[in-house]
Amino acid sequence: MLIIILLISISLTIAIGFLIAFVWGMRTGQFDDTYGPSVRMLFEDKKKK
Amino acid sequence: MKSIDHVQEIVTQCFHCGQPCEEERFQKDGKVFCCFGCQTVYDILASHNLCEYYDFEKNPGSPQARAVEEDAYNYLDLPEVKKSLVSFQSDTFTRVTFRIPAIHCVSCIWLLENLSAVNAAIVKSNVVFGRKQVTIDFLSDKLSLAAVARLLAQLGYPPQIQLDSSIAKAPESNRSLIIKLAVAGFAFGNIMLLSFPEYLGLDGADIQLQHWFSYLNLLLAIPVVVYSGRDFFINAWLSFQQRQINIDVPIAVGLAALFLRSGYDIVTSTGAGYMDSLTGLVFFLLIGRWFQSKTYERLAFDRDYKSYFPLAVQRWTNMGWYPVVVYELVKGDRIRIRHSEIIPADGILLSEEAIIDYSFVTGEARPVTVGKGNDIFAGGRLLGQAVELTISKKTEQSYLTSLWNHATFQKPAESKYRKIIDRAAQRFTWFVLALAVVTAVYWYVYDSTQLWLVITSVLMVACPCALALAAPFTYGSMLRLFGLHGFYLKNADVVERLATIDAVVFDKTGTLTQGAHTVKFMGVIDPHELAWVQLLASGSTHPLSRLVADSIQKKSNVAIQDFCEYPGQGLAGKIDRIEIKLGSASWVGFTGFQKDASSQVFVSIGGEVRGYFKIETAIRPDMKNLIHRLGNIVKALLSGDHSLDQTKMKELFGKVPLFFDQSPHDKLSYVEKLQGDNHRVLMVGDGLNDSGALKQSDVGIAVSDDTGVFTPACDGIIKGSVLGNLDRFLSLGKKATIILKIAFGISFFYNFIALSFAVSGHLTPLVAAILMPISSVSVVGFSSLAVRWVGRSLST
Predict the structure, then answer these.
(1) Backbone phi, then psi, for A29, in 5-degree steps?
(2) Chain B: nearest CA to A37, how far in angstroms?
(3) Residue of A39, B236, B408, B707 with fewest CB within 10 Å of its CB?
């Protein structure tokens, strides 16, 4: 049964990692613009002159 | 001379902005432009290799891109203005965020993020599309802030400058709400998973695991109570201090009971606790808060006159004309105002003549001509030639802005109305407390060992989660539905107040009438003569001439001779040696005309009077039907204008009293008087002169044809084109309240079931975990679907 405790510890650690990642993303404003990035990736890179 | 009859009407679209072009006057690289402004933008882009702009969207530019004057935006370089605008500043580097209403498409994003190609001093620019904002990093030793703003304006993206630094701060609270929601959702999901062994039943050796899981649940629930649910406890405490019970009080009590009881169960190993119910509850409640908090970021509902007035004007100093911030103007300053600028403070005219449009501040539809030495009031918009004036009063003491010293503007608006949800919560809380006492007495007699368990159970299930969700989802869905149809409310509470309205008061100018004018020619005239008239009229800056010139589609390319303008009378000029006169009846020599509500511009050609242009403000379509459908809840028309339109309005309103020449204070006190007679008043207005009445009324709605422009402080903004639907919006507001009451019924039903479990001592964690989500989901589902169902009428 020790294995369940181990597995749950691992799964919780990973989940908390994702939660922290989300909080960080939110705090730094990565979800502020939900439209811009979807079109920005389609722009051609500028040719360096 | 080219004959006009041969000019064909070619419908081509402007390559830049997509407006139809009548003439191919502006051409470049085989592309047609509607005006010089559009061509200039194209030139700039073409010379910097930025024509990709036109690849993403067809005709992406904004129309009416006007030439930007060289000294425009100079005031941005004044230290005090600059300080409040920039978010970061060092000796060489500055970061500024502008709000740009013109941002509307992919091309806009592309161009604004490639500003560095136009000017190398711009390091980086970044668009936030949803908020129509652009953040620009630039080298301030090479480029001034004013120059950045000018560049944007030249490209057709004039920034909207506002000194209140509310731009970037608004999303902060929303962000923290979403983080709280995420934490609660995270804990809820994990605790549900970890509770499975308990519900499915474990035996023998695995019983150890059960304890372990319970402690894990306790650990996960702590941040939910302490962090995510914090606001409920704070709000409950605040309302408790004010000796009022709002919905947060029973919620806080329920949350506390759930947490303490579960903690006790877990620590003493007497049970698994109700942590899944607790975290689920917080999660659902926060969803409700989030749903309710979503509003229209683009729209501003809280503007006062300060954001209508200009930030700075040109003031005369010993060294010449320099920009100065408006609030630094003092009595005796000499300032210069240009065409279409707003007068910032009361003053005395130094120039010969000024034409001023007060329609937004006083409701007077017709521009006023003021002679030298006369008073000019703050808030008017100058039309025509630039004028100079001496300040006689500071902005905040000016005649028209004195309205804001009225008490209505000093008190907070929210306290006037006690919400349905809080009234329901109050009764509910007393009922639950009474029930808890009765149950306690019963169990004390019957089996005192169970006493605390039963009491905590009662308090736990009494937590009105479904009740708390009903209002946000009903009113929130209604708010979204209204928004889809051009009616934007400040927040969901306004829907509730809308339902109680039993008196409607209208403003005239800009509300019932459109900002636009209709110009009709009465008389006989040849098309080519009409084109001459257009040519003559376009030479003048007088507002009536402008209207006449704009109303004539035919254009002539002939030269005009001996053009002259006589203030207060009219225009004259010669084309092909034929004298053409435009102006008042006496100017063209016409007698026997009956004056009516419209303005007239008479025309004579070669000494012969041909007729006149009849210029009227147009009443919005559908107003008659609207007023008819609203019936006897329409209480009055309050117009700041003189009574020239009386006959027209009488026809529209029937027996409803009409008030003309109303000052902003008169309007406010009329609304107050209605409220004194126990009416709940809806004021519909548009201008600064309505702002007192809008604020005083129970619901103040501003009419706007363009939601990007200034609207006075209000509870909602309605698009001019959908004003005819106002009665439907009102009746939908009433239906929303009915839906809410049904949703209350559903939630009470679930509470009743749960309470019957609780008082009999049968509330197991499993029952709680099933009942709680079901009640929330069914209330949310019902209210959202019901709103959509009653909202069908708007789509037809």
Answers:
(1) 80, 25
(2) 10
(3) A39
User: Tokens at residue B764, please?
Assistant: 């197991």
Q: Which residue has the higher pLDDT, B590 or B193?
A: B193
Given an 8 Å threshold on Cβ–Cβ distance, is A12 in contact with B52?
A: no
Q: What's the CATH superfamily of B486-514+620-733?
A: HAD superfamily/HAD-like (3.40.50.1000)
Distance CA B532, CA B526 (A): 10
Determine the length of chain A.
Answer: 49
Instruction: Determine contact, residues B630/B504, Cβ cutoff 8 Å.
Output: yes
Residue B274 CA, distance from chain mean position: 44
Q: Is A41 on the interface with B (CB under 8 A)?
A: no
Note whether B212 contacts A: Cβ–Cβ < 8 A.
Answer: yes
Question: Which alpha helices (H) appear in B539-615, and where do they start and end?
Answer: 543-551, 585-588
**Which chain A residues are closer than 8 Å to B190 by Cβ?**
12, 15
Cβ atoms of B685 and B658 closer than 8 Å: no
Q: Nearest-CA distance from B106 to chain A in Å?
A: 7
Asked if B545 and B582 count as a contact pair (C-beta separation under 8 A), the reply is yes
- pLDDT of B170 strictly over 60: no
Q: Is B113 in Cβ contact with A39 (below 8 Å)?
A: no
Q: What are phi and psi of B170, to 5 degrees?
A: -55, -45
Instruction: Please state the ipTM of this predicted complex.
Output: 0.89
pLDDT (tens digit, 9 = 90+) per residue, B316-356? 888 778 878 777 788 888 888 877 778 888 888 888 888 88
**CATH topology (fold) of B74-154:** Alpha-Beta Plaits (3.30.70)
Strands B86-89 and B122-128: unpaired
A-chain residues near B200 (CB < 8 A): none
The nearest CA of chain A is from the CA of B313 a distance in Å of 35
Give the confidence band of B422 by pLDDT, cuts at 50, 70, 90: confident
List chain A residues with CB under 8 Å of B182. 19, 22-23, 26
Q: What are phi and psi of B125, to 5 degrees?
A: -140, 145
Phi, psi of B103 (to 5 degrees): -65, 120
pTM: 0.78
Contact A45/B at CB under 8 A:
no
Q: What are phi and psi of B221, to 5 degrees?
A: -80, -25
Which residues does chain B have within 8 Å of residue A35's beta carbon, measured at their own beta carbons? 129-130
B232-256 pLDDT tens trace: 999 999 988 888 888 888 899 999 9
**For B515-618, CATH number?**
3.40.1110.10
What are the start-end ranges of the H helices in B268-386?
275-293, 359-362
Q: Which residues pair with B566 in a beta bridge?
A: B570
pLDDT level of residue B640 (50, 70, 90 thresholds): confident
Answer with the residue of higher pLDDT: B549 or B149.
Answer: B149
The whole-angstrom distance between A26's CA and the closest CA on chain B is 7
Place of tokens 């490639």: B114
Q: Does B135 touch chain A (CB under 8 A)?
A: no
- Domain B310-395, classified CATH 2.70.150.10, yes or no: yes
Nearest alpha-carbon partner for B707 in B724, B720, B688: B720
CA distance A45 to B325: 42
Residues of chain B contacting residue A26, judged by C-beta atoms under 8 Å apart? 175, 178-179, 182
Output the DSSP codes for B461-514: HT--HHHHHHHHHHHHHHHHHHHHTTEEESSHHHHHHHTT--EEEEEIIIIIEE
**How many Å apart are CA B358 and CA B368, to the nearest integer?**
8
CA distance A45 to chain B (A): 11
pLDDT(B186) > 90: yes
Beta bridge partners of residue B324, listed in sequence order: B313
Q: Break chain B into its structural domains and give their ranges.
A: 4-46, 74-154, 173-292+418-474+735-795, 310-395, 486-514+620-733, 515-618
DSSP assignment letter at B677? T
